Amino acid sequence: MRTTRLAVPVAVLLAASGLNAASAAARKPVCLQVVDASGDGMVAADQTSEALDILSGDIATGKRNLVAAMRLTTVERDQFQTTGVTYVWTWSVGGVTQRLAYYVYVGGTTSASFDPNTAAGASGDEVNVSAFADGATKTITWTVARKLLGPVKKGAKFSAFKLTTHLGLNQRLSGEGRSQVSVADTAQSGKSYVDGTITCLKGT
């Protein structure tokens, strides 16, 4: 009888332990959703730029914001940025492709934008958003108010991650002009992200 009474608590404890382990795994922050090799930010056949070299990227959503990060070998300007460069983060969600861009202009000024639908028939919906380049972490981080995402349902899946860096002709003279001359580096991922999942990013 004693053996029978002891077996039940042991089984319960083992089951609880398994549940706790599963719960802990579920709460573990997601990070490095996109990873890319270093040293491949090509600006010419035999020249690379560390400022255009993508290392990794992440995206996260919360009740207030979407936050996206692109990590580079450096965010410091070099001789290849004299005419401007463009950094782009794209993904698909709810049947549409959305796009973030960070522009560095001649002279070093910057701006950032979000396009909630990149389809040709949905032009004119691009809006300015907040973004900054952090020299300490070598990261460009965008923040987009959730309301700007459009009809993205709670629990939606983000996929088709793609990050690119571009040599550009970006200037602010008589009006704003931006053009992407060539792609320097590309990073893609087959991973996906479920809306609201905890990540290593802050500010959602």
Annotate the secondary structure layout.
Blueprint: H1 2-27, E1 34-35, E2 42-44, E3 47-48, E4 54-61, E5 65-72, E6 85-93, E7 96-104, E8 110-115, E9 127-128, E10 130-134, E11 139-145, E12 157-168, E13 171-173, E14 175-177, E15 180-189, E16 193-194
Antiparallel strand pairs: 1-4, 2-3, 4-5, 5-11, 6-7, 6-12, 7-8, 8-9, 10-11, 12-15, 12-16, 13-14
Question: Top keywords for this entry?
Answer:
mainly beta; 2 domains; seven-stranded antiparallel sheet; five-stranded antiparallel sheet; 16 strands
Describe what this molecule looks like in 3D.
The protein has about 200 residues and is mainly beta. It has two domains: about 1-30; about 35-195. It is about 15% helix and about 45% strand. The protein has one helix and 16 strands. It has one helix at about 1-25; strands at about 35, 40-45, 45-50, 55-60, 65-70, 85-95, 95-105, 110-115, 125-130, 130-135, 140-145, 155-170, 170-175, 175, 180-190, 195. The strands form four sheets. Strands 6, 7, 8, 9, 12, 15 and 16 form a seven-stranded antiparallel β-sheet that branches. A five-stranded antiparallel β-sheet has the order 1-4-5-11-10, with no helix packed on it. The radius of gyration is 22 Å and the shape is globular. Residues about 1-10 and about 10-25 have low confidence and may be disordered.
